[in-house]
Amino acid sequence: xxxxxxEFKLAIVKAYLIGEGGYRSLAREWGLPxxxxxxxxxxxxxxxxxxxxG
Length: 54
Hints:
Strand content: under 5%
Helix content: 55-70%
Shape: globular
Largest sheet: none
Oligomer: single chain
Distance between the termini: 22 Å
Order of helices and strands: HHHH
């Protein structure tokens, strides 16, 4: 997801954390051609919550 800006990435992470969908459905919803980069979100969920809450 290197070609996407930080704001876009953070919005997807927040959507994932609040339960708006899994990595496949979020990739489809946000227009990402490949859901594989989002697959790592599940394994980093606790870290991401800390980062997003800030």
